[in-house]
Design a protein that fits this description.
Blueprint: E1 3-6, H1 11-16, E2 21-24, E3 27-33, H2 44-61, E4 69-76, H3 82-93, E5 99-104, E6 115-122
Parallel strand pairs: 4-5
Antiparallel strand pairs: 1-2, 2-3, 3-6, 4-6
């Protein structure tokens, strides 16, 4: 199967040796994604929406869309933020309803981040690569 990497251009990708997303055949794996610096001052709902918009951009570059998302994992620093993050998730995915997990962690990078998402998508067989 062909392997394609998608970069967001962040210097941390080179430093850590990772890609924003990797597509292997119909499978797309989006790395942990937080809001960008300009959105880190927002509350957890705003950060979640911003991070999911970055995810949508990476999926589009990989030839997919939010409709192809099969699984999401949200890492949060405070479970008290869960209702706001869940609302952003529901607003973003609507009837798609991917399998989802939320996990509390002691911290994220950057330290101002309240939520980070990992995404797995599977492009339908009739969609071009």
């Amino acid at each position: 199967m062909d392997r394609r990497t998608i970069s967001s251009g962040y210097s941390s990708e080179e430093t850590y040796g990772y890609s924003r997303a990797v597509r292997i055949g119909p499978f797309i794996f989006v790395s942990g994604t937080t809001a960008r610096a300009s959105d880190l001052e927002k509350d957890s709902h705003g950060q979640a929406k911003a991070a999911l918009a970055i995810v949508a951009e990476a999926l589009a570059e990989a030839g997919a869309s939010l409709e192809d998302v099969a699984r999401t994992v949200a890492y949060v620093v405070d479970m008290a933020d869960e209702p706001q993050i869940a609302r952003a998730h529901a607003e973003t995915f609507g009837p798609i309803r991917p399998a989802s997990t939320i996990v509390q962690v002691s911290g994220l990078s950057p330290k101002e981040a309240r939520v980070e998402f990992e995404i797995t998508a599977v492009v339908s067989a009739n969609r071009a690569t």
